Amino acid sequence: xxxxxxxxxxxxxxxxxxxxxxxxxxxxxxxxxxxxxxxxxxxxxxxxxxxxxxxxxxxxxxxxxxxxxxxxxxxxxxxxxxxxxxxxxxxxxxxxxxxxxxxxxxxxxxxxxxxxxxxxxxxxxxxxxxxxxxxxxxxxxxxxxxxxxxxxxxxxxxxxxxxxxxxxxxxxxxxxxxxxxxxxxxxxxxxxxxxxxxxxxxxxxxxxxxxxxxxxxxxxxxxxxxxx
Length: 228
Prior knowledge:
disordered N terminus; seven-stranded mixed sheet; 228 residues; globular
């Protein structure tokens, strides 16, 4: 039945396909992820969670793609029904422990799944959130297409990501780190053209908001509506 998720925890993931090598990068990060990426990324997560709450309304179904260790889950209200997916099992194990420890009953399932090939029917979710995912995925355009496919008419896609600066010292710094992208697990240089190109390919998509958030306006929240 639409809206009811099976409780899928450790050892019960439905996706048995081999994980791509880029997912295994986050096996290395899993134990340390919260230590390094909680506080600096918290303002963005909070802004995205508030956008989700506004877009989903009461009892809305929300998909979090690239949920990682689940740092944003507790920031979303308990009147939602949330499903999270990620490719890195060690990250999901931490998210599962967080859900149990904090009693996050709004989180109905956490599953191993590729955001580039979502195993959900078209138009399933009221809101689809991608927190800090696009610059990680091999094909951000495919992630966007899959998010669009599973968003219901009248629903929203919410993107939270770093996009590269267009000028100044940040451009030089980000380009200098390009060679380290494989080790880091994300693209240090990630131009906003990724979004403008996708939006141009989907003229029906309505960009409701583009807002830069702390710290130092390094991250951007986008709200994109799918017409009813």
